[in-house]
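[agent] plan:
  1. take the single chain provided in the ticket
  2. run structure prediction with default settings
  3. attach structure tokens to the ticket
  4. add a short note for the reviewer (M.T.)
[agent] executing step 1
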Amino acid sequence: MLRLISPEGRLGRREFLRAGGLGLGGLALPGLMSHPALSAASRLTTGKSVIFLFLHGGPSQIETFDPKMTAPDKIRCANGEIATKIPGVTFGSAFPKLAALADKLTVVRSFVTGDGNHDIKPVVGRDTGGANLGTLYSRVVGTNHPMTGMPTNAALFPQAVDPAREPAQKAFGNFESTGGLGSAFAPFVPGAGGNLQKDMELAIAADRLGDRRALLSELDRIRFALDGAGREEGLDKLREQAFGTIMGGVAGAFDLSKEDPRTVARYDTSTLMTPEQIDRKWNNYKMYVDNVKTLGKLLLLSRRLCEAGCGFVTVTTNFVWDNHADVNNVGVVEGMRYCGTPLDHAVSAFLEDIHERGLSDKILLVCCGEMGRTPRINQNGGRDHWGGLAPLLLAGGRHKMGQVIGQSTRDAGEPASDPVRIPNLLATIMHTLFDVGELRVTRGVPVEVMRAATAADPIPGL
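[agent] step 2 finished; step 3 output follows
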């Protein structure tokens, strides 16, 4: 990631302090630390982080956490059920590890996304003002953590942990969208194009650190390596963000080689199956491989970023949950091998890890897609688009775990209890991140932030 290098390979304390006094875009580091958005963070925020694991493509509510084994054939879970640690509650059989950790998570069985369209609406959509949820967070607290320099908003795609993987899928929506809040607050995306870490390496001799123009020139080079375009507002903020990250010494958080190898192995989903065990006949073959290869390491990287001060992390392994059983996509049984098995392994490793590290109350994990799947399996062995019900899993964040919220109808097609909708989920996330009472009385909070926090109540019972 970001490193400051001298020809001798070291940076002395005097040079470090000189660099720390440099102005960026007219704002020195002491000024950045006292920036209103950052100084407000201490009273507006809870000190918690959110990891939003977006299951792009729309996972089946039945094959995941609501198996409906008493329903007729072609409706009930195609691969059976498994008992969980919660008495009387079962999950789909693809989730034995999560079933054993059910006391550390909450499943919502009455979650409604509203339509069956392929998009990214829980993360970026009408209810977020067209901005990534993390953008709403960084717009209030600033683009970098005031003490560590860590970007407060990040988005992780497969190339963040493996440059050989496919680029981010943006055909159904831009995860980096900032709506009307300004490009400066876009998520920080490590590994973009496979060369971000190399592009973002500063190589300035120690005797040139006092040359503000030399540093700004290097930051401009980084900026244009990432994106040839850019408004001045975004450019200035990116200067602050890049320099803050460099001087904050958080580059190591992005480097999994600095993690205990036993922990990396614990998360690693690439050992679950080889690419040869995934059928090449599917047009989405490469995305299934990406999911298996990277999901675990992406969640590990997410945990490392949160530990270093990132407040919101979006994670997705691209478009893998569209289990129609058509020319592009697998059916539900095969799909749960390529998607469900890695999800079970990665999320259970994450839950155990943050519990052991004492981080369960500090990090909220959210797992859902943009929709669910039809109650009835189609003639090809898949389930089609369905907006009437979708799976939702939450864990941590000092919420009540070990429960099922809501009920579905006998065919898992609609809620049989009060529906939980996207605005309820957004309110839950915003209440996890912010003291919403303080937000209400703080001047200058964008309307998009207030709408996400207050348009609906948080999920009842959580």
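[agent] step 4 note for reviewer: Residues 114 and 416 are 15 Å apart (CA to CA).
[agent] ticket updated
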